[in-house]
Specification:
The N and C termini lie far apart (50 Å). 32% of the residues lie in helices and 16% in strands. It is an alpha/beta fold. The N terminus is likely disordered. The strands form two sheets. An eight-stranded mixed beta sheet has the order 3-4-2-5-1-6-7-10, sandwiched between helices. Helix 1 packs across helix 9 and helix 3 runs parallel beside helix 4. The longest helix has 23 residues. It has a single domain, classed as P-loop containing nucleotide triphosphate hydrolases (Rossmann fold), CATH 3.40.50.
Length: 308
């Protein structure tokens, strides 16, 4: 006789991306090409949103090339011997976490793709983020396991694509847009970094890498052009010294450009949130640690090893 298949009663993990308890918007900041200033944009955008009164978190999702400790003026490996393990800290109004907090200077992260994906999921799920308006993900360049893992694990409100005006960078920006479309993640728009240079002696605007490429690409792909960031020596110095310009040069042209972009991002995220179907948030607790006197559990499989 035929046996009916057993019926599920909701005991397994929920299928599909699940919201993070207390987090309103998860936003990915991405590019398909390295060297376009993605981490600079992520850093200053996070600080700009925080200065506007939002509760902001920022994840360094570039597991093998973490830059955010430097961008925020934090020494590499400063949490390596912490009893708490890897945990977020508050800096310039932003709650920040990076695997770079654990790594001594010059130490590489040599992980295969599944481990990178697992690490990103842990930074999303196993961290006590609390109540956040925005959780920004500074993604690694390229179409990587990090982006796929994040999109499969949490509902990403939207992606911001960072490019420069050069044709080769714009070609890669188009690939990043296509990747997020395949992952069913809305693209909030394109930011053109290194858009122009203002000569300090004459104030002349010089378009070193070309003009209008990102804006034209946004039109071609039917996404918004979020704004242009000038090429300025103070951006480089601020990144190297851990001094975001939005915080330390708030009256300058660069900070003004980031504030305008932050306003557009906030407005777009709110519109998309109102259009999205409601989802019940879930919360995944941090990895259990052995009680005093108890032996530690055996190691997780290599692709699931905990970094928290």
């Amino acid at each position: 006789p035929r046996r009916d298949a057993p019926q599920a009663h909701g005991h397994g993990p929920p299928a599909g991306p699940q919201p993070i308890d207390g987090v309103r918007h998860v936003i990915a900041i991405a590019s398909n090409k390295g060297g376009v200033g993605k981490s600079t944009v992520a850093t200053n955008l996070a600080v700009a949103l925080a200065k506007d009164g939002a509760a902001v978190g920022l994840i360094d999702a570039d597991i093998t090339g973490p830059n955010l400790p430097t961008m925020f003026g934090l020494p590499a490996g400063f949490q390596a011997n912490s009893e708490q393990g890897l945990h977020p800290i508050q800096r310039y109004g932003v709650k920040l976490i990076s695997i770079g907090f654990l790594l001594p200077p010059g130490s590489p992260v040599v992980w295969r793709g599944p481990m990178i994906g697992s690490g990103v999921k842990q930074l999303l799920r196993d961290v006590p983020w609390g109540e956040l308006d925005y959780l920004l993900l500074d993604m690694p360049p390229g179409t990587s396991d990090a982006a796929m893992s994040a999109a499969q694990d949490v509902p990403i409100a939207g992606a911001i694509i960072v490019s420069t005006p050069q044709p080769v960078a714009l070609e890669d920006a188009a690939k990043a847009i296509a990747m997020f479309e395949k992952l069913t993640v809305p693209v909030l728009g394109i930011v053109e970094n290194m858009s122009y240079f203002i000569t300090p002696d004459t104030g002349q605007r010089v378009e070193i890498f070309g003009h209008g490429g990102a804006e034209a690409a946004a039109e071609d792909h039917a996404v918004d052009f979020l704004g242009a960031i000038p090429l300025a020596t103070e951006i480089r110095a601020g990144g190297d010294e851990g001094r975001p310009l939005v915080e330390f040069l708030p009256d300058g042209a660069v900070a003004a450009a980031f504030r305008e972009i932050a306003g557009r991002v906030a407005a777009k995220a709110d519109v998309l949130a109102r259009m999205a179907p409601p989802q019940a948030p879930i919360h995944t607790p941090a990895h259990a640690r052995p009680a005093p006197g108890q032996p530690p559990a055996g190691p997780a499989p290599s692709s699931e090893r905990s970094i928290i």
